[in-house]
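User: Can you recover a sequence for this backbone? Please restate the input before giving your answer.

Assistant: Of course. Working from this structure:
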């Protein structure tokens, strides 16, 4: 037996049959001291460099050369707000078709080519724009953009692809409409703004509007939005790339736009937000639902309102973190939900406060009362501790954003779409540092649920009698078919 084996047996058998004393070491006073938090490290959000490309398109660029990866977004004009009233979903379906056959490749060949390049390509439909985002190694970006160029300028739009895409979309739509939480979130804007308002329209359409869309509608819609690059295209890039390289890529792959004037482009006018005269509660029946999904939407500040940052900070206190007032009441104290939150949604066509929670069906009316009461606490003001936590969380969101190239690219797309200045991140962060608790309280009216709509999606057979007993006025409604 080796000396190593003998030593190992000795260690394993030590103490067998005899008592071994273990020395106890008392921790020192210094080791028991609770660490004191240090001051936050200096942080400034990045500022994109904005320039104009040779074809007239605007370029937003953030260079980050630590990794050889680029997130490259092409923003085209045309979104859900251009859908005809009887064909909601045409923009979304058209954009889904862009990921199918294009150029001399079939849909499966494009999928294989992107897989082989280890490239991720996605498409997003907003109310105003279409965003094609590419994430790739910088050495493969040229090949990836050649494929994306075909998607934009030479989509195949075949009957086979169209039939598959529309059927899959319809199936997904029908399935989603059986989900109370999805229905509440997706159709709450419809009940606040109405069908004629751009924000009231369903980006994905409804079963009846999707069935009314034909392949010719898709072809015509796509052709009509391919206007001159100077009026209908933006390029947003984050990563290991420079403006000169981007200019070369754009000249190579995106020089096929027809030359038109801005007057040739039709963009729906901004309309006033439809504000109910008094509290409005609507109930959507979801037979057998085990929970009631609650959404409260309240119209908020208009673009340029000096209260915007103060409202965002107040929103963090009310429902923006795990320790928020809404979560503390509905989850921690009452225990009838996994979580409750709220935030402000800001866009070209309007802004609103959105409050979100799903509660046990038996607690529906109690949850409504508690939620409304919590929102009303904004009238009582915000403590110094509330203020400090909100400012810290607001700053933390910027830090988190700066750590992700995809998130930076997505946020830059929004700046471009909303025509915000490139310095707005720094401006907003600086402004947040000077907002006072009193300024936060001055936004209390934005949390008044009686100015908006409360949408309930649940089992009406159970929920309806509870609402009547609680004296809550409501209207039983159907979601758009």
């Amino acid at each position: 037996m080796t000396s190593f084996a003998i030593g190992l047996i000795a260690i394993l058998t030590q103490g067998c049959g005899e008592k071994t004393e273990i020395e106890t070491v008392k921790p020192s006073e210094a080791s028991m001291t609770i660490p004191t938090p240090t001051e936050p490290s200096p942080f400034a959000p990045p500022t994109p460099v904005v320039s104009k490309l040779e074809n007239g398109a605007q370029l937003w660029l953030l260079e980050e050369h630590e990794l050889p990866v680029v997130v490259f977004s092409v923003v085209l004009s045309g979104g859900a707000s251009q859908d005809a009233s009887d064909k909601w979903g045409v923009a979304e379906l058209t954009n889904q078709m862009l990921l199918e056959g294009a150029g001399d490749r079939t849909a499966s060949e494009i999928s294989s080519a992107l897989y082989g390049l280890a490239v991720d390509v996605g498409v997003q439909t907003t109310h105003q724009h279409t965003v094609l985002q590419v994430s790739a190694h910088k050495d493969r970006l040229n090949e990836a953009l050649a494929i994306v160029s075909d998607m934009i300028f030479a989509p195949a739009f075949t009957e086979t692809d169209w039939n598959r895409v529309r059927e899959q979309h319809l199936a997904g739509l029908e399935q989603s409409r059986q989900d109370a939480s999805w229905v509440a979130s997706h159709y709450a804007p419809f009940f606040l703004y109405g069908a004629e308002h751009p924000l009231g329209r369903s980006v994905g359409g409804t079963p009846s509007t999707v069935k009314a869309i034909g392949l010719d509608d898709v072809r015509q819609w796509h052709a009509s939005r391919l206007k001159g690059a100077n009026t209908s295209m933006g390029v947003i890039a984050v990563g290991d790339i420079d403006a000169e390289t981007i200019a070369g890529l754009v000249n190579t792959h995106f020089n096929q736009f027809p030359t038109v004037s801005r007057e040739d482009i039709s963009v729906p006018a901004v309309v006033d937000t439809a504000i109910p005269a008094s509290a409005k509660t609507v109930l959507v029946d979801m037979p057998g639902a085990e929970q009631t999904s609650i959404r409260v939407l309240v119209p908020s500040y208009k673009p340029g309102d000096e209260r915007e940052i103060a409202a965002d900070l107040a929103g963090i206190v009310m429902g923006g973190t795990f320790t928020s007032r809404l979560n503390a009441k509905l989850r921690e104290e009452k225990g009838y939900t996994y979580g409750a939150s709220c935030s402000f949604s800001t866009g070209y066509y309007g802004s609103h406060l959105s409050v979100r929670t799903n509660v046990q069906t038996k607690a529906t009316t109690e949850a409504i009362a508690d939620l409304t009461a919590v929102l009303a606490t904004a009238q009582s003001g915000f403590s110094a501790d509330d203020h400090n936590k909100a400012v810290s969380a607001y700053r933390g969101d910027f830090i988190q954003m700066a750590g992700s190239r995809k998130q930076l690219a997505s946020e830059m797309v929004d700046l471009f779409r909303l025509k915000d200045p490139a310095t707005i991140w720094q401006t907003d962060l600086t402004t947040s540092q000077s907002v006072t608790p009193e300024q936060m309280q001055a936004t209390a009216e934005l949390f008044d649920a009686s100015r908006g709509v409360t949408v309930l999606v649940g089992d009406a057979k159970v929920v309806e009698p509870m609402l009547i007993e609680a004296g809550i006025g409501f209207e039983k409604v159907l979601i758009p078919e």
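That completes the design. Residues 376 and 448 are 7 Å apart (CA to CA).
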